[in-house]
Amino acid sequence: MKLKEAFQGMTTKEKVDYVWEYYKGIIIGSLCFLLFIWLMVDGFMSKDEEPVVVTILSRTSLAGIEEIEEAFSHETFDVYVDHIYHENGKIPENGMQSIERLSTSLAVGQIDLFVIDQTMAELMMLEEVLAPIDDMIDTTTIQIDQQDQLILENDWYGIRASTLSELQSLEKSDQLYVFIPATARHVKKIEQLLK
User: Fold this and answer.
1) Distance (Å, rounded) from C-alpha 102 to C-alpha 35?
2) Number of folded domains in the chain?
3) In Å, what is the CA distance from 11 to each residue of 5, 16, 27, 144?
């Protein structure tokens, strides 16, 4: 039966009741679909920027890390400081979970700057975890003295942590270096941090 024939002789209220009775599934489904599309578009349009993640593997105290967080808080973008505490190469309490989290974060590109010592960096270079700095960013925009650059296998891989004002509160910052993981995502922001 055609809708036009069914409506003959009905009042407006009867027509509305008829449409609701036979087509409410289609009406509700269409409204839900439109709401879903609107939420998806709104979600993509209002997505917040991801922060630049600086991961530090050191024996710096919590107070020192808080100073670093404060120093980075003056940037025009968010910087998240992640710290894994270790004492002479030993990671206390939940060490395995920390290493697993670190490995996963490096693999998926959640770490943009990595602060570690030279020995650890050389091990990570063998696994191609770290990238030469000049392969990742425009090094003409940053000025680092030759003695503060860590050159490994004829490539510039690291910057002495003590040369960056934000990292001077690190314990033994003159023995730590800043590296860029090969999976880093925020290359332009890294460049701004290193200027």
Assistant:
1) 39
2) 2
3) 13, 9, 21, 83
Which residue shows structure tokens 């602060």?
115
Q: What is the pTM of this model?
A: 0.68
Shared domain check, 153 and 121:
yes
Residues 86 and 24 in one domain: no
pLDDT score recorded for residue 107: 84
The DSSP 8-state label assigned to residue 126 in this structure reads: H
Q: Per residue in 144-186, pLDDT tens? A: 888 888 888 888 888 888 888 888 778 777 888 899 998 898 8
Q: Following DSSP, what letter does each residue of 136-187 receive, concatenated?
A: HS-GGG----GGGEEEETTEEEEEEGGGSGGGTTSTTGGGEEEEEETT-S-H
Looking at the fold, whether 58 and 11 belong to one and the same domain comes out as no
Judge if 11 and 100 occupy the same domain. no
* Co-location of 40 and 92 in the same domain: no
Q: Is 67 exposed, middle or buried (0-12, 13-18, 19+ CB in 10 A)?
A: middle
Is 76 strand, coil or helix?
coil
Residue ranges making up the domain that contains 84: 52-194
Distance CA 138, CA 49 (A): 22
Residues whose CB falls within 8 Å of the CB of residue 163, separated by 6 or more in sequence, listed in order? 144, 145, 148
Task: Tell me which residue has tokens 């024939």.
Answer: 5
* Rounded Cα distance, 191 and 111, in Å: 14
